[in-house]
Amino acid sequence: MTTRLPFFVYGTLRPGEHNHDLFLRGRTESEEPARMRGLVLYEGPGYPYAVEAADGVVTGEVVMAHPEAYDELLRALDRLEDYTPGDPRNLYERVDREVTRADGTVLRAWVYVAASAVAARLRAHGELIESGDWRSPRFI
Question: Gamma-glutamylcyclotransferase AIG2-like domain spans which residues (predicted)?
Answer without folding.
Answer: 7-135
